[in-house]
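Run log, item B.
One chain of 212 residues. Sequence copied directly from the ordering sheet:
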Amino acid sequence: MDLADPMSSISPTLDTPVLGVLARARMEMTTSDVNRALGTRHHGATLIRVLRRLTDSGIVSARKAGRTWLWELNEQHVAADGLIALAKMRETTLDRIEDQIDRWHYPVEHAAVYGSFARNNGNTDIDIDIFIVYADDIYEPAEDADQSVRLGLAIAKWTGNRGEILAVTASELAEMVAKKDPLIGSFRTDAIALTDSFSFRRALNGLSLASR
């Protein structure tokens, strides 16, 4: 599934991303607000036609305030809960990944999502890339492999996308930082921490918590 635009799994037409914008906002929006939130500019008349069509179907509510039309997802509509859940699919995926890692028998020092999914771009073919750091005295390759495989399989069931897990020890992370591994730059820029964000950022800068 395209997790950057999960609504596109319903239909490739403009109606679905517009519904996604309104479902995420859950508040009144002007036509210009909707256009900005879409990320790609559309002709105002085209967008208004879409919004009016959705209003006619009952899934969107509209009211006029002065000369401005305000649009909002009709949360009383029977389809609203499903649309909201679909629009929040990216956040739900992150929550499920974090919950599964929290329940691992062998705990991690740091965990983060990186790559296209973290940047919120991509398509149905993207992998969901996860970076795991174990303490040196905890890391067990066989156990890590088992935990990582189970997480990868779970991600595929949740989303239809592959889960790719890169696991290292704290010492290996420090070596990557010292050698200026290109991945470290990507982590600093785009990664979404699933564990304590402050300690993860310090680790990426070659600092331990003890060095505060």
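Observations after the first pass:
- Residues 89-207 form a domain with the Beta Polymerase; domain 2 fold (CATH 3.30.460.10).
- Confidence is low (pLDDT under 50) at residues 208-212.
Flagged for discussion on Thursday.
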